[in-house]
């Protein structure tokens, strides 16, 4: 099956406008005849459901949480990008496009990324109209801050709660449509299969997580906005319920899975404290605006800190290694996430880590507190040489910008980050890979769409900070409602899709047989035993750095672990009842397949790019010595995997990437 990305012809800046001018439309009266299923109610799914219903389609929305407002988008902290150039610092649509392609290490599709940059400005206007309380400057205008990988301030934010506030905006838009009867909401329902009729996605099979009931739902098109698969690593910043099941079931029904090895390790997370943990906590990347990252210059100081004999505040300035500022003077602490994460790992591996495990670096706000304090003292005509006053005023400014993040850190770590530096370390956060989609956001299954983090997205091999919220809302509010209409224009005379057909019956039968097998397995080991084991394989062999030997062994180990899972897993309780362990088992079963494909994809891509770092592909000399080395001659393509049974048998399809508007060159943030 040839991959057709369906990129419109013409100049890059005109593609989206010309596309919208040429597509088929569905008139308002006919939209009432068409049903659309939206799975997932985060920023992508929620905004899509609300917009499609507002347009007049009949929407069925599904989430496994007890409310759409509990979608994991709520956890996003730092902000959302938009090319509005409010700061007058040189931002533009092209600059956002360029930063995104460069930040993704030149492994994303130009046309999609430019469209994302183009519609970004509309998102802010939409959200302000919904009442999202973005931060404002002294004059009342919307404020901006900078994020990693860019040289401008384009990130709109609401303290450290941006995801929550944006989700509440989408949720309120959804609620309006639920009240009108245009959205039928199914909370606590998990999608367990896609139903295809004559090659087209025409419905889904779900399980009611409260009653255990298996249900059939039909529609003229199915949209997946189900997030990423970071929990394949077990420990990640994702909510514990976040999973790959919906996307993986779609993959098994014919949707190609693209770039699974492109996983983002976020540099500013609270370090792992022990094997008892079930998830990790993110500290927003926005903190890197004002926090300076460092480790001791002397190993003996690092050892003394780890032993509890020395405090970080006792280390003199000249004995601190601000290693990002040293290695990347042009960007300093605001290098992209993959670069910052690898640099932290390198320092800790070299013996300069600062917590008991040796896997942490400092994120220090002392300089920012002093800078803000002096500025505020001048503004209020107070004594800028009074150290206590400056510290007090500076802390108040920092509290205004990041207060809830500091409070969260103190609750978890029991240290006051106003007085002592935060400790951070990289952790799995976001997945750039996902279901392959064309320019219309349609997968390789007709009528099946994937939006937000569920698709292989616009981020290439590494996502810039504050771009996840941008992509999710761009897809849901401004892209999918156009592109899906072109497809649905062929369905205005189709009529309702029946669920009493052999296709629905077969899909339901498959779901029931898997559930029966798990419930009646009578093994001896809990689901978490297998998930933790998988996570350790993934982190140790497919984590921040990868090599051929480890990846080959990971493929075999995961395959063996999957065999053991089906022989030894024990799922207590029944299938026709609330059974969270059963829900978890179904999700882990899919992670055990995805993990193998992940390792296979990483093994196939013998280059370093973005979040995918191969130890065999490193710059060996020159100013970039030690940095990731891309291979544009052999790997300028999207890996799209076709399901063929066992993940190790998946077939690779390549979407060659062409760059007509940006010159391919090795990234440098020095």
Description:
The chain is of the alpha+beta class and 670 residues long. It has two domains: 15-262 and 432-665, FAD/NAD(P)-binding domain (3-Layer(bba) Sandwich), CATH 3.50.50.60; 267-427, Succinate dehydrogenase/fumarate reductase flavoprotein, catalytic domain (Flavocytochrome C3, Chain A, domain 1, Alpha-Beta Complex), CATH 3.90.700.10. 39% of the residues lie in helices and 14% in strands. It contains 18 helices and 20 strands. It has helices spanning 15-22, 28-31, 43-55, 93-103, 110-130, 162-180, 245-252, 299-306, 323-327, 337-352, 366-379, 387-413, 468-488, 502-519, 527-542, 548-568, 580-604, 632-635; strands at residues 35-39, 58-62, 80-81, 145-146, 153-156, 183-186, 189-197, 200-208, 214-218, 221-224, 257-258, 263-269, 292-296, 320-321, 361-364, 422-431, 434-435, 448-450, 637-642, 651-656. A five-stranded parallel beta sheet has the order 6-2-1-10-18, sandwiched between helices. A five-stranded antiparallel beta sheet has the order 12-16-15-13-14. Strand 4 and strand 5 (153-156) form a beta hairpin. The protein is globular, with a radius of gyration of 25 Å. It starts with 14 loop residues before the first helix and ends in a 14-residue tail after the last strand. The model has no long low-confidence stretch (mean pLDDT 96).
